[in-house]
Amino acid sequence: MITFADLELVTAISASGSLSEAARKLRVTTAALSMRLRKLEVALGLKLASRDSRRLSLTEDGERLAEEGKRLLQSLEELSESMIGDDQQLQGVLRLAAPFGFGRLRLAPMLARFAKLHPKLKIELDLKETPWPDRNNCDAVIHIGSISDSSWTAQVLASNERWLCASPTYLQKHGMPDTPNDIASHRCICIRENDEHVTFWHLHKKAQTQSIRVIPAMTTNDGGVARRWAESDLGLVLRSQWDVAESVANGTLMRVLPDWQFDTAPILLLIPTQKNRSRKVQMLSSFLSASFKSPIPDSI
């Protein structure tokens, strides 16, 4: 008979892609997990996984068991939540994924407050360069930028404008751009994220729309690094408002072409469609929505 532990085993392997990562999630040794997998295969008379020197992948039967297992485990979790009175604390595990910079600077302080409200809830935050769409095992994912995927429900937490900025020293030396066309003569710092085409900057002003191709003087996949380069007088940077607003406020950066609007990159809370009914996810959604609207600084 397939047990609850068997379903947890196969779904963990499906989400991880390796025995070692699955073992860490289930808090057992790799050898113990491998033995459990072999016993399950013998009991079912099926080959559930294929192994090579680098990774482990589930067979068709293994994937089918993992998919059914995820559905059953989710139903059991929802049943457990539904049996808890409204006056009681959230319990269980809440798994989230978010981009590195935003997760550290903005999301982590919010989750600290949420954790204090629900001390019985275990929160797991996984910070990745690209947390979506490779985190299907999560209850929710923070994503910056638009998506189109019917298997996820997207809630806009903040519009998140993009601001073009540079340091006062850089602008004093190289001059302040007066029009979008002036950008081409400046050093530009570009950020690779979400596989976007980083050398095209799109601007809007009333009925005017203009696209500028820039030649990057410096490129990185870390937005925080790009901001610090700009603060070090190395060029113009196009960065999310949430990351540069403080630098603009304290004078280490200045907005460039503030009358022009660049393409926005909305901050989204992505929830797998099958987890929309989860009480803990619904409460997280309400909490984050209120937190993003609050003018109170995100301090722990």
TL;DR?
With 300 residues, the chain is of the alpha/beta class. 39% of the residues lie in helices and 25% in strands.
Based on secondary structure, the structural category is alpha/beta
**Number of DSSP-assigned strands:** 15
Rg, rounded, reads 23 Å
Strand content: 25-35%
Give unreliable regions as ranges. 296-300
Helical fraction: 25-40%
Quaternary assembly: single chain
- Quote the average pLDDT: 83
Q: What's the arrangement of strands in the largest beta sheet?
A: 4-3-5-15-6
Helix tally?
9
Order of helices and strands: HHHEEHEHEEEEHEEEEHEHEEEH
> What distance lies between the first and last C-alpha atoms, to the nearest angstrom?
47 Å
| Broad shape | elongated
